[in-house]
Amino acid sequence: MDKIVQFVQKSNCNATTVAVFGAIGAAVVAFKALSLFKVFVDVFLRSGINVKKYGAGRGGWAVITGASDGIGKEFAFQLASKKMNVVLVSRTESKLKAIAQELEEKYSIQTKVYAMDFTKGADKDYQALQQLLEPVEVTVLVNNVGTNHEIPTPFEQETDKIINDIVEVNINAAMKMTKIVVPQMVARKNGLIINLGSFAGLVPTPYLSVYSGSKAFLSSWSQAIGAELAPKGVTVQNVNTYFVVSAMSKIRKANFLIPMPKPYVRSVLGQIGISGGASTPYTSTPYYSHAIANWLIDNVFSRGFWVNKNYDIQVDIRKRALRKREREAAAAKNE
Ligand SMILES: NC(=O)c1ccc[n+]([C@@H]2O[C@H](COP(=O)([O-])OP(=O)(O)OC[C@H]3O[C@@H](n4cnc5c(N)ncnc54)[C@H](OP(=O)(O)O)[C@@H]3O)[C@@H](O)[C@H]2O)c1
């Protein structure tokens, strides 16, 4: 404060100049406060587009990739509870069949399952899926399947397999699945595509560089096709996700910042078409604590600050992961 006063005195600023700068400062603060207020209104008060618009209860089908666990499984349950028929896709057929049976019995809906490994990127799988989906009215696609680095790893040390798997699952699968279902959505002028984005796509994440880049792709691509498809009646929503309890996150206990899949997916489906904490178009950060974190990232400190923060966090996680690997290797030797 003293420095500002000295600067004002030294630079012979007159009252008008001070008033102008003061007014600009007040306007910036007011704008920021308003944008934070809008985040609170979005996540606590507004309701998004009802999934009934996308055929729930009227024979519409939702296709969910990575549907046998975590967030994808929860999407399957919540969409089925809203009377959407569901197509479940992941690698493990036994899990898919058990979930499908449970959903049919619990919610009296129809189901289809298809087991495939998205890392293979096999044309025969996508062709089989296309045939499976052709006769049904697909109104919702949840591009949920995702894969990550095993542990935070410097890019030059990462294996080619992991790099290729991330690109195939996180990027190519989303595009190929969308290519399959979009023509029928456009023909009916009705559809919803939810892409599972990540904070790693919002702020570049060192040591998870390929995962982070894949989610940044998803963000940019979602915004581009979101604008293309909106006039054709199809809603695209990239969902900025911070940590959620799941096998992928390796987090087992929920807290204020890290919800279980159930409340997380409820927030996504409750805020279709609403941005929450996100500041980019065709994007949503619907879970309240994630929304506040998203707002802070966008409004407090520079992007460089957050990238460096991510770097420090991942270096620490890598150290602990390497120590755990050493312990496990030593234990295996002693067996
Ligand atoms: N959890 C988080 O903290 C978090 C944060 C940000 C973003 N996300 C995103 O949310 C999405 C879901 O993550 P999650 O945490 O729910 O993961 P998860 O609990 O590990 O579940 C992953 C699902 O995908 C399936 N799957 C994995 N690899 C597959 C492959 N190669 N081919 C076909 N299916 C495959 C798994 O089933 P099978 O093993 O049976 O195939 C499972 O159903 C991902 O896109 C992730 O990037 C998660």
UniProtKB/TrEMBL annotation:
Localization of this protein: Endoplasmic reticulum membrane
Swiss-Prot/TrEMBL catalytic activity: a very-long-chain (3R)-3-hydroxyacyl-CoA + NADP(+) = a very-long-chain 3-oxoacyl-CoA + NADPH + H(+)
MF terms in GO: ketoreductase activity; very-long-chain 3-oxoacyl-CoA reductase activity
Keyword Transcription appears in the UniProt entry: no
Pathway(s) of this molecule: Lipid metabolism; fatty acid biosynthesis
A UniProt-annotated Pfam family: adh_short
EC number: 1.1.1.330
Transmembrane annotation, as ranges: 20-45
Family: Belongs to the short-chain dehydrogenases/reductases (SDR) family.
Record protein name field: Very-long-chain 3-oxoacyl-CoA reductase
Organism name: Podila minutissima
